[in-house]
Amino acid sequence: MSEDIWAARDTNPDAIEAALRGLLHDRHAANEGLAPARVLNLVVVVDREWKGEIANRLDRVGRYHASRTVLCAVEAGRGTLDAVATVTYEEPASGIGVIREQVVIDMGPEHLPVLQTVVDPVLVSELPTLMWSPHGHEEAVAALLPIIDVMLLDSDGLLEPAQAFGRAHELLEYVYVVDLAWLRTTPWRERLAASFDLPARRCTLDQIVALEIRHQANSTASGLLLTGWLASRLQWDREPLQSRNGAGLRGAGRREDGQVAIGLHPTNQDAPGLVGVTVSCSDGFALSLDRARGGLCAQERSPDGRAQTWKILGASRGEGGILGEGVRQALLRDPTYRPALDAARELCPQ
Amino acid sequence: MVSAASVVTGTLPENPLVEGLERLPVRPTSLVVFGATGDLAHRKLLPALYNLAHDGALPERFELIAVARRDQAHEDFRAVARESIERFSRRRPDPDTLEGLLADMRYVQGTFDDDHVYAELDRTLREFDEQAGHPLNRVFYLSTAPAFFPVIAGKLGDAGLNRADDAEVRIVIEKPFGYDLASARQLNIDLLEEFDESQIFRIDHYLGKETVQNLMALRFANALFEPVWNRNYIDHVQITAAEDIGIGGRAGYYEGAGALRDLVQNHMLQLLALLAMEPPTAFEANRLRDEKLKVLEAIVPPTIQDVATMTVRAQYAPGVVGGVRVPGYREEEGVAPDSRTETFAALRLHVSNWRWAGVPFYLRTGKQLARKVTEIAVILKPVPHMTFQSSGSVGVQANQIVLTVQPDEGVSVSIGAKIPGPRMRIRPVNMEFRYGTAFLSESPEAYERLILDAMRGDATLFTRNDEIEALWGIIDPILTAWREDTTSVIPQYPAGTAGPAEADALLDDGRKWRRL
Question: Nearest 5°: phi and psi at A295?
Fold first, then answer.
């Protein structure tokens, strides 16, 4: 990879935008085979001392880079804007090569209420804009809501699930939300959907009596979202789960003709997300899926008591992959997230 | 409370968990690959299966049985498969996932007419069903020479493997589907003796390419193009599939095939059908294929007498490609010095219906040409009155909509624009859409999509028997005329050029081939 860089102290958005245009113009003039990616703007607002760590996370998203990334690094006491604009490219041996643009703007807290006036001129206007504010900075979010299309957040982590879900719910009134906690449940949702797609099993969706979810200690939100997804898809009545003093959550949902026992269990695991899920049905059928190397370990107990174990293949995406998937999902719309989120909010302990 | 799971379609309730998922469920499947040690399996099928496994896209239970003549143990085949995947996968394999995929692969050795092979397959498939506790769907993938298609289909039928209780059985075959109309009909008859048409999946891997599918999106998801997509606005269409390489080591195959059979009869006519068809009422296998079939049936095949004026064939002569001297076709190893097999073919066809009456469709394909490119160019009629006549510029040119299938997948639209300056001078400029710059995702290999579709039973991107016969119906008279003409001189074009000058004569009314 090669890059061209422009930097300035005490600058302004017009100068930054002009510099980006100049960098692109010069690079295209030098090699007509290079064209700027035109997919998505990504605006990231971070504490300046964590700027490097966030930049590293963004580097690890694999191929799912936004075409123009604007990283706003907030530093207490700063009153001016310093900026570094970079265009990154790989000279194509033949055909078309893609240029990606990144702007890092150091700014102070006083810029946040008027952040729209700083960021808007630097965005590619015809592209959708995704915002990620991993360190909070609510003022920045409020300032940019009118110009963004999608908010990237992570309901797992620092906030209590109820708070995190409330935040997501609130944002959904204005923009589409991509929730990394929801994306951590994707392989589990896909596998459960596939497992119950067999004609014989599909009929048992009405007969689920127990749902047990094992999750990393900081990923209760992922567990609740998976529960909320099943509850919303299968139309279970919901009520708040009971907290078991750090030993997880327990409670019940109600389906058409019976009850579903629900348990969420914090489990040791380094990586955020789910560890395993077990679904049991009234006829004795039970299916467990648990993380394993190179995929999931499936264990099935049939109604006649026969047990079997096998492996379902799939490489782990890692947290870099999850963030990359979050960027990619900004271009898609998942109609099942909001109902799952609403159900998960109802399941949160009071 | 209404249970979502109680919503019934037919006798089976809908699966309410599927909504919103990008990856639709695939039923547990045993995949049997005949010819598993061949080149296609080595370069495409095994790497595609790995990538599906990596993405978690394979069914929750997936079993692979490889069948080939080579005498080797299961472990030996796994080692070969590992090497194929490590070498040809589009991404670096994850060791655990790769290990998981290889672990249960089985190898059945034997010739394709050997009853023992089918007895062993039956035994292994039953074993997999028993392990799963329910019958797995079965897909038989024939990655073999076409001569074996009827043999294998017949043996599968004899062994009762063409049907299964409570499971779907499908057979996948690769082109060529016959070598002329009569043999294609016979192949259909042979296959349909053992399998229903709904069980047969004929792969044309071009249809699995994103750009080819994007042709339908361009036409039917944009109000911009459809109003001009007819004889009132379109002057002509050019479909080009140019290769900058020779026949490599494939003289044995190519001498019997030629450019017309190799690319025109299948890929290029499929592109024409997708470009010219009416909008299907739904993006569903039979509705889409019905519309393609109507187009193919509307193409009036040339009479044998017309072939001389509607087609051109040629062979590459010695020349220079990429700065390297290369031999002519007749000097290639394995090619007869007096060979009449064409390495270049160009055709002028007409689609006789209301939408396309009078619009010529020009098709050309060739080997050892100046550049590798596959594209569809739709050339619109010029504006009716030239307001901006001006010297000192290229001037107003007809708009062109160009879909590039390879190498840079995308779409470009040429429009006339004013050259900056004091005078009103116009030149064409391009509005470009390139997959590489406009999407975050890397396009999956066509085989990944097609294998998955075959396992899911979605035949949308596969060719139906009546399509195959319609395709051959267009080509057959040309083959006959060329075969019967044993005396005329086959035009030669220097390797590394745009093809023979004779191809220019196909285009009338001042039209020109697009530059390669």
Answer: 150, -145
* Cβ within 8 Å, pair A327-B53: no
Domains and CATH numbers, chain B: 26-174 (3.40.50.720), 208-506 (3.30.360.10)
Task: Summarize pLDDT for B151-169 with one digit per residue, the tens.
Answer: 999 999 999 999 999 899 9
The full set of domain ranges for chain A reads: 2-148, 186-317+337-347
The whole-angstrom distance between residue B296's C-alpha and the CA centroid of its chain comes to 16
Contact B239, B513 (CB under 8 A): no
Q: B366 near B343, Cβ under 8 Å? A: yes
User: Is A63 touching B (CB cutoff 8 A)?
Assistant: yes
Q: Quick check: A58 and A322 in contact, CB under 8 A?
A: no
Take residue B283 and report the two structure tokens written for it. 């993006």
A341–chain B nearest CA distance, Å? 14
- Phi and psi for B253 in degrees, rounded to 5? -70, -45
**pLDDT tens profile B10-47:** 566 789 999 999 889 999 999 999 999 999 999 999 99
What letter does residue B42 receive in the DSSP assignment? Answer: I
Q: How far apart are the first and last CA of chain B?
A: 64
Whether the CB-CB separation of B327 and B318 falls below 8 Å is answered with yes
Assign domain A186-317+337-347 to its CATH architecture: 2-Layer Sandwich (3.30)
Q: What crossing angle do the helices spanning B148-158 and B181-194 adopt, rounded to 10°?
A: 20
Q: What is the pTM of this model?
A: 0.89
Q: A256 Cβ partners below 8 Å, 6+ apart?
A: A206, A235, B1, B3, B6
Q: Do A39 and B408 touch (CB under 8 A)?
A: no
Inter-chain residue contact A198 with B28, CB threshold 8 Å: yes
Q: Which site among B60, B98, B374 would you substitute to test the A interface, given the most A Cβ atoms closer than 10 Å to its Cβ? A: B60
**Which residues of chain A from 258 to 297 reach within 8 Å of chain B, CB to CB?**
293-295
Q: How many residues does chain A have?
A: 350
SS (H, E, C) B421-463: CCCCCEEEEEEEEEHHHHCCCCCCCHHHHHHHHHHHCCCCCEE
Residue with the two structure tokens 């080939």: B68
Predicted confidence band of residue B394 (pLDDT cuts 50, 70, 90) = low
A347 Cα distance to chain centroid: 21
What pLDDT, on a 0 to 100 scale, did the predictor assign at position B4? 42
A318 interface with B at CB cutoff 8 Å:
no
- Please name the member of A35, A255, A316 whose beta carbon is closest to the beta carbon of B434: A35
